[in-house]
Amino acid sequence: MSSMEERMELGVAAAPGSSSSGLGVGPVGGALDAGPGSAGLAGIQEESGLRRDGSGSEADPDAPPKKRVRQQEGEAGKLEERLYSVLCCTVCLDLPKASVYQCTNGHLMCAGCFIHLLADARLKEEQATCPNCRCEISKSLCCRNLAVEKAVSELPSDCSYCLKQFPRSSLERHRTEECQDRVTQCKYKRIGCPWQGPFHELSAHEAECSHPSKTGMELMGILDEMDQSHRRELQLYNGIFSLLCFEKIGFTEVQFRPYRTDDFITRLYYETPRFTVLNQTWVLKARVNDSERNPNLSCKRTLSFQLILKSKVNSALECSFLLLKGPYDDVKIKPVIQHHVFSNDANETEYALLPISDSVECNKLLAAKNINLRLFIFQIQK
What we know:
By secondary structure, this protein is of the alpha+beta class.
């Protein structure tokens, strides 16, 4: 047998003893590194599904897949964060707290921003449009999205006191009744204690509160200041009750309609049609921000009004009057009694602020096509 044939027989005999790790035994028993062929074979085995477990047996094809590695929050973000960007208002970019409106193309707006857009359009004498797609919006064209409202109510939100997360639907109850860090007041506030602090410190403060140990004179001074505000409220209601005892009382529903001035820069104002109360003809006018040059640039908005007597009178007509919300409106108005002596030379009252609570209520009025209020006029008999 030739030397070549001997070497071939030795190679065949060494093959069965080769290591599973890819190391073979050469003709002289030396260790040889695995060549590229072993790596290719491993790749073929993986592609054909012949993966083996640690014991060397083939993996069970019916076994559940291994748990995927969780992606980093910086790459994909939490589900809540992604939903925030989907469900947020397109105007203020914040999650709605109450009603959610959508334009005809489905873009979402919270109730406050929706009303603000309508009010801005009224001031600019333009058609209100969606800030996203520029389609026309109005109370008749837009509708509420109840699905989004319910979805937002289930999203977690941080408590402003304890910073823990709760569903938005239960957050208010937690903040007002359950949170140990909610702001509360001392039970001796009725005698002037100004302390405010977290609920879990309330019992410790009340045990050390100094107001129960104050002298009678000190408490009388504190209580007198607190009673002054109550007196003003009581005076208002007593004044209304006394007006209801007058002989001549008239009231009517008034409707303010928007108009424009003839100036180079037009201003929005409101005026009612002529109406008759107490056998006299009257007109109400109202203006925005006391005729400010550009009220659409202001964040704070107000309405002021005046009462005008259109009839001719033979003698002075002394009247008290007040405006209240109409029977079908939800605007919040605090009653304020106005007083004026009307005559042919003084037939207009001074402009007085419409006693609405805040700018949000003012935007509600501006967003409406008409403002419906109820006017009471009381004639004082000489």
